[in-house]
Amino acid sequence: PTSEGWSSLSSPALHGAAVVVGGKIYAVGGGSAPNLEEYDPAPNRWQTRTNMLTGRVSLSAAAIGGKVYAFGGSAGASTAKNEEYNVGISTRLTNLTPNTLYTFQAWSRNRMAADNSVSVTLSTYTLANLPVLYSSGSYDTVSSNGLLISWKANSNPAGTEYYVDISSMGNFSSTASGNKNTGWITHISTNVSGLSAGATYYARVKARNVDKVQTSTYTALGSTVTTTDIEVPTNIYFDDVTSATITASAYTPSPGFIDLSVGQRAVRIAKDGTYGSWRGGNTWTARASFTPLINEGQGAGFRGKFYLLSNDAVLNIYDPVSDSWSTSAGLPTGRVAGFSLAATHNALYAIGGENATNSKVNEEYDPAADAWTTRAPLLTGRQNITAAGLGTKIYVAYDPAANSWATRSSADVNSPNGHGASVGAKLYIAGAGAGASPTGLREYDVVSDTWVVRASMTNGRAKPGVAALNGKIYAAGGFGIDDGNLGEYDPGTASTYTALTPNTLYTFKAQARDSNGNVTAETLNVTTYTWAGLPGTISSHTFSGVAASSFTISWTSSGNPTSTQYQVQISTAITFDGVDDKTGGYAVMLSSQFTGLSTGLIYFARVKARNDLMVETTGYRLLGSTQTAANFTAPGAASPLITAVTTTSFKI
Asked: What is the model's pTM?
């Protein structure tokens, strides 16, 4: 390159091969002649060397140990010959020590055995060996936030440098959380700190010599799990999802998170990558007394409100936002006592109880319609029943979707006076145990089918109304020392997020902290959509283009994103069970035209929405009413007849 010129071979070569030995290039074959030529870049000169035994083209060549090997190719026909050429300027030294400096000199002598002068002295280091594992393992000490990792030098001398990678993924992906490395160190063990408690970590090590030449691969050092005195969360469950709120709960199999009130033990949840504050739990707190006093009732949390069904069949509704109570449609089948009220995502269920005999009745309440419907009865009539809802299921254990029952594991105590609610894949039975004023609280893990004892209530009571709201359990009323007391139990695993955007995807993850402040590994990201919001009305032109048999209805998105789908229903009855009802299909739209309508009739319209997960709003938005135009027959062309003329009137 310095002279910007080319130097030609002595003989033409086509489909030959070339290798490098001792800083010189050797061109082999490439024609019918068995040519071998040597190129020395220093003087920019070619010269011929001893020819191959067999001339050939399209051959392969390699340099190993200072010798040239020519193999394969074609010499008129394909050949498998392998020929060795000894350049005579190389010596292969073996059994050397890794990462060690060796010094070399060279000289030559002529055919008369007269030595030429010796060359300058040159030196180089051998490469470092790959480290190896101890048979007893690589991890000498494992703590909640650190590891002591060791390996064998594999004959590498002192001063050899090592590089250790630590990752939470076995493939050491750069995207893995908690990746660490030691940098280059001269020890054969290293302490790694700042790790997550209860997490699996993998390690690998490589070496390099004094010349900074690294080994070409790593030695895998296996994996281990850091210790913890708190469980690592494994999942996220969602409660109380609406168009603007989500309650997310960190999950670990029971009996996990049993002592969130001890030391620094806590759980926190991140929304869209940002963590909230650490939260302890497994504690009861007294709240404002419940009124009116109800000695026996059943409670359930449903869409931000507390429903309390009393033994006089009255359904009382408490709104925590307005801090007020109201009543709703009474229970069709009255029950003296011993029934249970439970909520799924879509409805409330009043199950069992006492009504002269043990009842099998199962009735479903729809808050949107303020109406009760009879559903599949219990397999066995019973009173003092405890039931709670989770997702689309009722546990004791009724599945509304399949309209069927199943049996799960039994609790450690009989709880004839306990009532339950759910938070984050766990069911909580307050008032568990026997006696007039039981204080017990039991937790049931739906996933692992396991029961655990949790913190007892401050005030014992029998048959309290129990509900879950915003990740907490509320126990109200009941027979006991103070039947008007309201207790709040915080499991410490849930966080409620408000002011969210309708029909929007949100991402959550969780981690825990042990009593010494060491942080565990995170869960995987778990996502959910908020529900779509109810559409809004356009007061000035909800109905447009009103004709004898058609009209167009419009509404507003009310904050829903553009992907939200809507469904419109029209009816000639305000109850939407008229003689000329029509329902449109779901579509991304903010208006809908209906045709083929009856003339001169009043039509009512309503609309609902669904999110990208196809979850529908729980009710409709009433858009009002309009009347289609009537068909009139034009009067004839005959002259009008005027009669009954007076001073102030006449008749046509």
From this structure: 0.63
